[in-house]
Design goal:
This protein has helices at residues 2-5, 9-30, 46-71, 73-84, 88-109, 119-147, 152-156, 159-181, 201-218, 226-243, 268-280, 296-309, 313-319, and strands at 253-257, 262-265. β1 and β2 form a beta hairpin. By secondary structure, it is mostly helical. α3 crosses α4 (73-84). The two termini are 49 Å apart.
Amino acid sequence: MANIKRSPFVFFIYCFLEVFASIFVLGVILSSPSEAGRAIFLGLSFSRWIMVLGIFIAFLVFAFLAFRGYRDQAWAEQTLTLWFDGGRFSRVTGWFIGISLGLGWIGCFLPAYRTGALSNYWVRIQPVMAFILFTAIATLAVFFIRRSTLHFRDLKDSKIFKLTLILSLGSFLILLWMFFSRFGLSAREDFWYGAGVPILAGQLIIAIVGGILFSHFERRWKTKYLDVLIFFLLYAITAFLWAREPLQKSFLFIGPYPPDRVLYPFADSMIFDMASQFALIGQRLFLFGGYFFERPLYLSFLVYLHSIFGQNYEVLMAAQ
């Protein structure tokens, strides 16, 4: 690892990958023409040409850096030290790349329908955001390589590394099989849809800001119970925000009905809640109308919740 870290080969590979990525993104943009009424040259609009110009400038910069680094290894090593080895310029680079990673992630994975008025333009912007995301990931990889204290000799003798490598390779093979066979990803069933993206842009931004704040204050809080404090703090804030949200009328919550004017569960939630009522009225547990019902552990959980918090379903949801 030490020879790789100090070698200008890292700088050349980094720049070469950026050159390849910029060429690919340019090809994607140029192959997708603008609307006929907006095209000014070669089927592209003015805004599309601005994006093309920006990516082309990035191509020229990284091509020059790759050529210069290949010809002058001493200069490449000095540039790596300046950009990635902990100096003032390196810290600025780290902040810039962190912001770029967040923006690129949002741009690539945020669905167009979540962008409001920009939904019609989002598909056009995504190739540029993909380039920004790739640049951020590649730069973070160089940061890791330059600052890592691990050596191949240490990894070779580590039992944890060997076990992790075996598990990772096994998981990777399983994921490949799932990807090509589509097992678990799709099915010929009405209620089975493709896997989505569970992390929204707002959640990602909050996670990044929270990580920055915690890393900043961690140095000042001299206590060995900091992790426990952070855990309970996050749980309390999340539980408070979740519980204070009122139930909204929807397919799963119908009503409100008289005389108490509250919402009642419907569909699956109604069936599970009704099944839990049999134990509360003294009948045999989970004999829902005379037959066994699924998820008995969850039904047991509902029985105890009803015993403690009563029959108000909104309170029951908050308790869960």
